Fold this protein.
Amino acid sequence: MASGRSVWPLFLLLGVVAVSTGNAQGNEGASLSRALDLEGSGKCKEAIPVFRQALGTTDDPAGALYGLERCISEAGNPDTLLLVIDSVLLKRPRDPVARTIQLRTLTNAHRADAARLAFEHWVNAVPGDPAPFREYARMLLDAGLTRTADTVLTFAMQRLGGGRQVAAELAELKGALGMWEASASNWRQAMSYAPYLESSAIFVLGAATGAARDTIREILSADPKDLSVRRILAGLEMRWSSAREAWNALRVLAPTDSVVAAWLQFAADAEERESWLVARDAYATVVARQRKASLVVRTATAALQGGDPASALAWTDSLTAWRDTSEAGTMALVRLRALGQLGRAAAADSLLTARWNSLDPVTRGDAVRAVAWAWVRMGEGAKARETLARGGEESDERSAAWMALYEGDLKTARSGLRRLDDVTSDAVLALSVLARTRGEKSEGIGRAFLALARSDTAAAAKIFESTAKDVFDASPLLLAISARLYRSTSDSAKSEIIWDDLIKNHPQSPEAAEADLEWAKVLRHRGNAANAIARLEHLILTYPQSALVPQARRELELAKGTVPPSSELRGHGQTLI
Amino acid sequence: MTTNKRTTAIPNALRVLCRALAVCVLVTRPVAAQHLLIPMDDRQTNHLKAYGLIFNALRDGHKSEWFLNYRGGSFLLPDIQEMRRRAALDGILVEPINNATLQSIRSEIAANNMDAVALERAPKIAVYTPPKAPPWDDAVTLALQYAGIEYATIWDDEVIAGDLTKYDWLHLHHEDFTGQLNKLYLGFRDAPWFVEQRERGLAAAKRMGYPTLPALKKAVAEKMRQYVENGGFLFAMCGATETLGLAQAAVNVDIAGSFADGTPMDDNADQKLDWNRAFAFQNVHVEQNAFVNSMSDIDGHQVNVTGRRQPLGQFQLFGFSAKFDPVASMLVQDHRQVIQDFYGVTTSFTKQTLKPGVSVLASEEGAPWVKYIHGDYGKGSWTFLGGHDPEDPQHNIGAAPTDLSLHPNSTGYRLILNNVLFPAAKKKPLKT
């Protein structure tokens, strides 16, 4: 009992302390909230005393200090803020937030000597801590004071026994100086303690050009393969080269959970950028570790979007092999589209029949249109209409118009395609041809577009070229299209013959100027500047009213070397000169 | 037969009608133009290329005229097919005019503060620039390259060998004639480009028998002084303006920090400088601290010194009497009189350090500095324009070069090109 009695006052005391501490914390929290509310409603002046009140009642002054910094800076009176900071530092000389705000305020006020002194005090208050060096160097770099930042970091290396703890700041400094090798090495080192600086590294190193890029690649791809470092390399490759190279930087990593998550993120990013085949490969790599139907669907869809229907088909097969039916409807649709793109309309039709009952009405409607479109692309109009009728779908305008075009019925195609919201490149090309000729029938034009629909570019180029003789009013346009298609198949020699023909035999057509420009571009990229210049001068002088003249002048400047080449147009400067 | 008569009668009538029409066409057809006016006001589509057109016409032996203060400082060329062709290719607006129109223009020029200056021959241009430097490093080479104006590049070896006499016009940009490499040692001592620059300079000094880089640069500056004294035209921009003056005046005093020549700067450098040898400046205070990125108090803006840097404003070109002061007038021809300022190692020139005879061509209202100055020295003349690149006001080391095809009407670059063309003018005695 005695002992029980003696315990009660202690409980009471603890209770009182707890309540009073709670009240203090409550008051502090209330003050800070009120100050933030005032600041949020634009009443910074009124918020300042409340922030100060919060500062006086708290053990963690960060929130109040940041608030005071914002509000007092807005009022443009750094001395007031510095007084507050001084009082905080008297009680808490090691407080990193107060020290940082003090340095920032002095640096922004261009009080270089006072800032240096404040920095030295901070260094002495926290021996061995890299924070003062990091913060001050970063502020100096942000202000473009690379030389002073260099001095601070050299000092840091002396005091901290090496540059490891200030590697990120050193990396940024070296990047600003164009010392790419050192910068890349420092970034690599910095990733060990600050992986969140990945995007800063990409920003800084991204400014490197030419051979420096290879040096950076070498450093970042060296063993051991670290995920953060590889993500920097991937980010740089995405900027400098291609999504494919970016993926090559990541795919070699050992598949830990975080690496697989990074692959998945990369695949989604590639999808976003419409780098479909890279997205497909990234998803495929993830699927090898995570057998999920949804991922297979994304893999197959990316393959389809990337123009690789065969691979899309293979992926749908793999899912069938797993006997996973969770994505059956979507997968069937992908498969139908893939078959259609491969020109296997009959197989698509059979698949549709086989899956008819298992598809929900919405997916079934999509599937019917996909199969009908596959028939259209085969030039089988009757079968397309039959498929649509089977599904209760009306022959849609799009299919009808394209079917008419493939059959050479230009009149119907003209009126049909004009009404569509189709903005694909094929549609734009078709409309430009149909607008150019008054003809109502042309089997050649139909065959040429059908070849394009079947992705047979070489055949399409040939047919457009031969049809140009028959469709007199659109002849130059058909020739120009043919030349473009030949060029896309890397047959520049054939393109050049057609461009020459256009310039000589159709000099009054708008395509003649285009032929000059395109020919000049090919010549310039081949290193034949003299002939490129001749072509461009011909364009400018012969077609002074052409909308292509500004482009031609730009090409002319580049061919003559009177403006910096585009490879030079990059910047990474810090210090003025 | 009736049909036949009718068919012969109609052609006869047509023939008469055609003849009448032909006569009308001949009578009413405008007389072919005899001249091409290249307007330089806001109608001009490519001001910078217009200078190239004139320069190359002069080079090919054609004559031209510069109509000072007439439509932004327009040019006149003979109406030759080749000129039209070049103008069309470069996107330059030309206006074909006949003698009557020209006469009326001349009357307008005679009645106003305008003048017609004959341009006779294309000057031979040299640009003082390190070997292998791309043309995009320097605003003048950028402008010359873009305008299609030929120039030669020279460096220390050629200057010391006396090659300056081969040229009518010499341009200097941001070279540091004090030999301190713009005091970039502290910040950039390990940067590959800086190391290369320093080693190249030291090797050149050794090759030519000078103990240090500052000694070599002083010798180069002296050669340039002699070049102007003997009748050359010198146009300098950016840091070259200030450091050329310092190097010329410091012929017998050490003004380079120990990092540059191994010996400290002379404590009494200010008192020992001989300003009689310099073109534009006097009574200058040399910056003694090797780690303060400033050479002296010549520059008003002190861009690379924290705490001293002055903000950019606008500078205004002065109007001169075209008939009485054609040289200054030529140098300020522009389609705008107020131009956005731009930084450089040396951005401006403080008024307190200018010699009394210096002509101020442009300044910032109310500021203690001026932007653009000109003067005679011996038989020649010099012009200094502060700043690095008129279209890149905050230029940084390593910044992307300016693509002048995006600035074909640049008012700042016109000032540079005025200088290129001004030595082509036929000398007229000053009327003052």
